[in-house]
Amino acid sequence: MDSLNQHPAIIAGRLLLGWMVPLAFLPLMIWFERKMSAFMQDRTGPNRAAILGMRLGGVIHTLADVLKLLSKEDVVPTQVHPLYYRLGPFVAIFVAQLLFVIVPLTDTLRLGQDEIAMQGLQLDIGILWPLAVGALMVYSIVLAGWASNNKFGTLGGLRAAAQMVSYEVALGLSIMGAVMIYGTLDLNTIVREQGQLLWGFLPRWGIVMQPLGFLLFLVAAFAETNRTPFDLPERDSEIVAGYHTEYSAVRFAFFFMAEYIHIVVASGLVVTLFLGGWQVPWLDTAALRAQAKPVLAVMLGGLVLAGIVIVPAALRWSRTLRQHYTDARRHEGRVWVVLMGGAATIGAAGLALLPGLALPEWAPVAVAALAQISAFIAKVLLVALTFIWVRWTLPSFRYDQLMRLGWKQLMPLALVNITVTGFWLLLFGKGS
Amino acid sequence: MAVDPALLARLNVKPEELRVVRAQTSFLQSLYILEVVRGLAVTLRHLLCNLVRQSAMPTSQFPEVQRVLPEGFRGRHRLTVKDDGTPRCVACMMCPTACPADCIHIEAAESPDPSVEKVPVRFEIDLMRCIFCGFCVEACPKDAIRMDTGRFFDLAGTHREDFVLTMDRLLND
Question: Mind listing the pLDDT tens digit for each residue in B66-119?
Fold first, then answer.
């Protein structure tokens, strides 16, 4: 391996990236959760909290929530196990934060002779890392549930243990098909393989090569994140809040954050394994670097288009705001007009200047990375939205149904998938 | 299966004839997938409709946009006045007598007008006790108290005194 990739500063930066990206998704995820659930139920959702009249469609509420959780009294019930009770949330957030480092955000960056990986951990075992570390998650929940010394907590913890252990089997087996097809465990290589074309026009994404594997992985990932329809460990109607019944303030916030980080991680893995990861469809890294100028032009054009769409809407909205409000909120529409108008102007100026511009040497690599990380984030958001969408649609499973689905349906299907994939590879080889 | 034998005898059913009939699901339904997709389509439709036409949502932005209450809605009370601006109320005590919540308190005084026997010097309605039944309006022989202000959602206050409607407030509504 080259030297720069192993430089301590670069390693620290990569780890920090893998650590910060899911955290950066958090406020967005919470906002989506609240707003999407509201719209699905014909409500408006959060729209009050504002900073200087800027409400950002309710994003500020997330900030208010954070402040509330930070400033609330931290209640530690007298009957709990003092150490394990405190340990539970920390294990949850610690394990959740360890997971995303394995996901490649873009292809390796080329700087002169050096290749810098854009994933926190460049491990050959790749996909085994989130499976192995993610399995530790169950400790935090069992620990929290049991240490709470509360019947509901214990029940939630036990349910979580049974559920996560059951679905871990299906989760592990469901990705084996994809691993066999791409012939590697390394996630970045898997994503690179997905850039090739099937029959000359279809990207060899996991969802195309392994539709059943994709479905199984998605379902098992839902179960692993403990969200509806697999929310048995914290089902309100039966066991209050399950394993975090006795938790409040920041300790509760840690569980809450861990759940959302898990969604981001699960989405990242779904995208990496089955939706082409950072691949921009039909454009691999070499093509993106060779076509840096057109790619840049498309991005700037997107900026202009966004401005063209949003500015008139914001103008209309601004008029309504000024009718309804007398306080600072009435100016929010104008701020958006200025911001989006400015962005569109910058985009247009960039478009005008681009043909005559001589791009520096590092620009193609940077443009390709930018395009790839945008594609990656867009895909992750899409899958994460699916998590929220499913949560607010489906009722949850009964315990015996959950176990039947995991052991009698998902696992045999995953085994069938592996067998069929194996025979397919044996008969037709990797090419088709 | 524990079923009351007397009930079975009355229905003329032998215990061995009892069996559990489960809900029938077709093969497609038992696969979950199709039904899940159908459910997702419903929520997505709501999501997109509300996203595109936010003004059509049933939520009203309360403090800024006041809801228009229907005609005849029993809202906050008011006292009516005569042509000369004095209260129509003659302190006859019909309304506190009719009031099931005991929330109306009247102090009467002698009227300066010889044709009228009494006038109220204190007329208070305790909204903390009021149940908005409208019996006071029904009982009034002089049409002096009405509940037609159409105001109901602005009854919030920070002190108990805020919820006591004094004669001033009643007359000026």
Answer: 778 888 888 889 999 988 888 889 989 999 999 999 999 999 999 888 888 889
Classify residue B83 by burial, with Cβ atoms within 10 Å: 0-12, 13-18, 19+.
exposed
3-state secondary structure B70-121: CCCCCCCCEECECCCCCECCCCCCHHHHHCCCCCEEEEEEECCCCCCCEEEE
Measured CA to CA, the distance from residue A42 to residue A409 in angstroms comes to 35
Q: Which two tokens stand for residue A89?
A: 């949330």
Spatial distance between the Cα atoms of A226 and A234, rounded to a whole number of angstroms: 8
3 state DSSP class of A11: helix
DSSP alpha helices (H): ranges in A41-81? 59-71
Residue type, A408: K
d(CA A54, CA A35): 17
DSSP A75-127: ---TTS-HHHHHHHHHHHHHHHHHHGGGS-SSSPEEETTEEE-SSS---TTTT
Cβ of A42 within 8 Å of Cβ of B58? The answer is yes
pLDDT in tens, A187-226: 888 888 887 777 777 788 878 888 888 989 988 888 888 8
Interface A-B: count of C-beta contacts within 8 A: 40
Contact A36 B47 (CB under 8 A): yes
Tokens 């958090």 label which residue?
A26
> Which residue type occupies A373?
I
Neighbours of A173 (CB within 10 A): 21
Distance of CA A198 to the CA centre of its chain: 27
Rounded to whole angstroms, the Cα distance separating A391 from A141 reads 20
B54 touching A (Cβ < 8 Å) = yes
